[in-house]
Amino acid sequence: MTIKESTILTEVDDAFIQQAEDQVYRILLQQRRAFNQRWQDNTTMNKGKTVLRYFGLLLCLAGIVIMLLALVYQPTWSFSQAQVYGLLVFFVLVAWFFIQMPKFDAKAKKWTDNTSQKSCRKLAKRCVKQAKGMLPFQAQYEIKGDLISYYRKQPTSDEGHEQWHFVWNRKMCRYAVQSALVTVFFKQAKSIQPKIIVLHDKPDELKASIRLYDISLLSMTSE
């Protein structure tokens, strides 16, 4: 197969990087939510929680019955009446917990999503932190086959002289999510940590290169 070569030039300023950060955030959040959903839909875990819930309820009901019988018939054992009342309250509270487990699951899912949003927002900020500190600049991505080389052009002196600086050279990963201004590469479709981020204002240029290789590409439309 002939190795395709192409170059992507992107003018990066404050307005661009703000929009790019938001799009990186939405891509990361999409990956994280998919990860959370797979975990929440895990059949083994859900069956385990169901078995635990009903088994726990049966034990609590048995404990409540035994404690009530103990209060009525007052058998000769080492527990005082106060201890029996304490155990009765304990079994009632634990039984209430098992009864309320579905509601707790719903709250846990909401908490997980809120935490994911905050985490992805912080990660998106870290992803563009270096770029924000060098604005404005021109980004150039040279693509040779499935290799991407990133160069940055910015002033090098007070006189405004500009020079290209080599930043990194990386191989495309097997999965990518693309929006209008960014393409984020992940190791695989289930990954939540980005490996490569490409800034662009013409996504079709990079898309054409990606399609030549065994790389899954998901396009995300801007909201």
Can you offer a commentary on this structure?
With 223 residues, the protein is of the alpha+beta class. The protein has one domain. The chain contains five helices and eight strands. The strands form two sheets. A four-stranded antiparallel beta sheet has the order 1-2-3-4. The radius of gyration is 28 Å and the shape is elongated. The relative contact order is 0.18. This is YcxB-like protein domain-containing protein. Keywords: Membrane, Transmembrane, Transmembrane helix.
Task: Name some characteristics of this structure.
single chain, 223 residues, alpha+beta, 4-stranded antiparallel β-sheet, 4-stranded mixed β-sheet, 52% helix, 24% strand, transmembrane, membrane, YcxB-like protein domain-containing protein
Radius of gyration, in angstroms, nearest whole number: 28 Å
| Span between termini | 38 Å
Strand order of the largest sheet: 1-2-3-4
Q: What percent of residues are in strands?
A: 15-25%
Oligomer: single chain
Give the total of beta strands.
Answer: 8
Please estimate the helix content. 40-55%
Summarize the structure.
The chain has helices at residues 14-40, 43-73, 81-99, 101-132, 203-210; strands at residues 5-12, 137-144, 147-155, 162-171, 175-178, 182-186, 194-199, 216-219. It is α+β, with helices and mostly antiparallel strands and 223 residues long. It has one domain.
